[in-house]
Design goal:
Glyoxylase-like metal-dependent hydrolase (Beta-lactamase superfamily II), globular, hydrolase, hydrolase activity, seven-stranded mixed β-sheet, NDM-1-like
Length: about 270
Amino acid sequence: MTINESFAYEAVTGFKFGSQWIGKPKMISFVYYVDGLLIDTGHRKMQKQILQTLSPLTVDQLFITHHHEDHSGNIAEVQAMHKCPVYASTECSQLMKSPPSISLAQKLTWGSRPPYEDLIAKEDVLQTPNYAFQIIPIPGHASDMVALYEPDRKWLFSADLFINTHIGYFLYTESILQQIESINRILKLDFKVMLCSHNPQFENPKQQLIKKRDFLNEFYDKVAKLHKEGYQVNEIMNILKLQEYKLVKLLSGGHLSKKNMVTSVIRDFNT
C-alpha cells in the first residue's frame, strides 16, 4: 500500500509519501514546496509517485536537509526533471559524494541512497523571490542536518529534529546531547509551525518540541546516573525496563535500536 497526499499551509505545499508491503504505511516522509524551492526529495521506494507529483511544479532550486535516504533518495531524478541547482550544507555535500552504507531495514523501508556529487554547499541564507530562509545547523540525528527558518513568516522546516515527543530507537551514529543542544537552539526562535519531515506540527509546535527535549533530558539523566554507578549497557536496559523493537533491530543488524540510545548517552557522557 502507498500514500500520496498533499496539504497547503499558507504559501507552503506539503507532499506526504509512504509505502509498505502490507497495510497502511507507518513510516511517512514529507517533501515541501514553497516559492519555487523544493525541500528534500523523499525516498526511492516512492520514486515513481514522487516524480509524478513534482512534475507540474516550477522548481527553481532544491535543498537537501541531510543525507539520510528518506530525504536524498531522488536527488538526481528531481534535478534532471527540473534542471535546477541543488543545495545542502557543506558537510552534506561532502557526505553525499560517497554516502554511508545503510541497513537492510532502511533499504526495505525507504530504498537505496545513490551518491550525488554535484550538491552546492550553502550556508547562512537561502533566498527565494519572496522569502529568505535562514540555514540553521541542528546536528544530533545526523551530523550534517540543518533546518530552514523563515523569520518573517515564522515557518520552521525542522527536518528530523522533532519526529515525535518520544523516541523508540536511535541510529548508532546519533548523539543525544547534540540533539538536546539543537532543540534548545531552535527553541530560541519565534516559529508558529514546525514542518517536520515526518510529523508536521501545526498546533503548539514549541510545546511539542519542548516535550521531546524533556524526554531526551530525562532519558539522558537516568542512563548517565546508572553508568556513573558502574552498570553496563545491558544492565542499564534491564533496570530501566527498556524493550527493543526486535524486528527493527534484527532487520537493521543493530543499526536501529534502543540500545543505541543507551550507548549514545554513555558515549556523550564520556566525551
